[in-house]
Write a structure and sequence with these properties.
By secondary structure, the chain is α+β, with helices and mostly antiparallel strands. The protein folds into three domains: 98 residues, no CATH class; 90 residues; 184 residues, hpI Integrase, Chain A (Orthogonal Bundle), CATH 1.10.443. The strands form two sheets. Strands 1-2-3-4 form a four-stranded antiparallel β-sheet. The protein has a three-stranded antiparallel β-sheet with strand order 5-6-7. α1 packs across α2, α8 packs antiparallel against α10 and α8 crosses α11. The longest helix is centred in the N-terminal third of the chain and has 26 residues. It is globular and about 75 Å long. The N and C termini lie far apart (75 Å).
Length: 405
């Protein structure tokens, strides 16, 4: 779609300045006096290689996206036409014209707001965050026979909801997640000017806190996993995460061959979790060790993988034909399978995929690494975040060390 209004040229294009894994937001590009600006269409993305089919696709979801883009294009075109006719066109005036037409939201029920935020997060490809809002809706449906109105939620209702979650058998950690998600729902309502600040239900409510559980593995459990790795691909994935400085599974499965540098002997990547959230999204660097190569060799053939075309990912679990939602689902399925296998091998220990991160932290500290060095390995911008992982230290190991004092 293209249009020329006076000296202003408009077109629908991909905003390649933002995005990840060949997926970019669809935007209306406005060009004037040698300058261009992109106005992204809310929650509409497209792969670069599929862009030429965007307006001709027969896929129902894509048709809806195409119509949304057309509506947004026409809306911006009408603003541009008015500003050009009045001789007032500038990007600043166009920005203001777009901003004054903010959507006025109207919600009656809590689940409506949660579903709205969930949809928004999915549009931003933040599927893990979206899942927490879906989980909140499901939890409320289990606890209450009727939908909960926004204005019915107060401090006493929050305590009642917390008590009902306990009756449902939810852990303290799960309850904390539900209540924090609900708190964000009401923060969003206030930002939207749907709910006045004086009716904010969380003003005096004390958020429940889960007791830190031991997540780091002791030497005995770690040795047990190493001994049994030959029998299971899932155990090898856990060990690979551990050897790769406790890398999250979502980052590990998304590692590309281009992240693997034989010349420098490092693996370099940007964490998915902090992408777009911090001002300086620094690279996380992992030295390639013999342990990493040994485990990787069970998944890939190093003598052929560089020269053979095909899957650009380092590990074979994801492929380029998957969209972000499919990659997220596949990662979640693998994570559940690994956790299930860990439970069978170590029934006496509460071991999960995340234990690899805590175990790496614990062992690095015991080997004499500083808190700053560990933070750099984990990709943390602050050592305060790293201190949380120290809650998972193996106290039997500490007791053995202190007994030598």
């Amino acid at each position: 779609m293209k249009k020329v209004i006076g000296q202003v040229r408009l077109a629908v294009a991909l905003n390649t300045k933002y995005g990840r894994d060949d997926i970019y937001p669809v935007a209306v590009r406005v060009y004037f006096n040698g300058q261009r600006k992109y106005y992204n269409v809310d929650a509409v993305f497209c792969k670069e290689r599929l862009w030429q089919y965007f307006f001709t696709t027969r896929v129902i979801e894509r048709k809806a996206d195409a119509e949304k883009v057309k509506d947004y294009f026409n809306k911006i075109a009408s603003h541009v036409a008015f500003l050009v006719e009045t001789g007032m066109f500038s990007f600043a005036n166009l920005d203001e014209a777009i901003q004054v037409q903010k959507v006025r939201y109207s919600f009656d029920y809590v689940d409506e707001v949660a579903a709205f935020i969930e949809s928004e997060k999915r549009g931003q490809q933040k599927y893990n965050t979206a899942a927490t809002y879906h989980g909140l809706v499901v939890a409320m449906e289990k606890c209450y026979s009727k939908r909960v109105r926004i204005y019915d939620v107060n401090e006493s209702w929050l305590k009642d909801f917390e008590a009902r979650l306990v009756e449902q058998g939810c852990s303290a950690a799960t309850i904390g997640i539900r209540m924090r998600t609900l708190k964000h729902v009401f923060n969003t309502l206030i930002k939207m000017n749907v709910l006045p600040q004086k009716l904010y239900p969380f003003s005096n409510y004390v958020m429940p806190k889960a007791t830190r559980r031991k997540l780091a593995l002791g030497k005995e459990l770690l040795d047990k996993l190493k001994e049994n790795r030959g029998e299971s691909e899932h155990l090898r994935l856990w060990l690979l995460s551990y050897y790769m400085q406790g890398i999250n599974f979502c980052d590990m499965l998304r590692l590309r061959k281009s992240n693997f540098e034989f010349v420098t002997g490092t693996i370099r990547f940007h964490r998915l979790k902090t992408s777009g959230r911090t001002k300086f999204n620094e690279e996380t660097v992992i030295p390639i060790t013999d342990n990493i190569l040994e485990v990787l060799s069970t998944f890939i053939n190093f003598s052929e993988w560089k020269r053979l075309p095909g899957n650009p990912y380092l590990l074979p679990h994801l492929n380029e034909s998957m969209d972000e939602n499919e990659k997220w689902r596949r990662t979640r399925t693998i994570t559940k399978a690994v956790n299930k296998k860990l439970k069978k091998v170590c029934p006496e220990g509460r071991v999960t995929t995340y234990s690899a991160r805590h175990t790496f932290t614990s062992n690095m500290l015991q080997l004499g690494a500083s808190l700053e060095d560990i933070a750099m390995c984990l990709g943390h911008t602050s050592t305060n975040t790293t201190r949380y992982y120290l809650q998972g230290l193996d106290y039997s190991t500490i007791a053995g060390l202190t007994s030598k004092l």
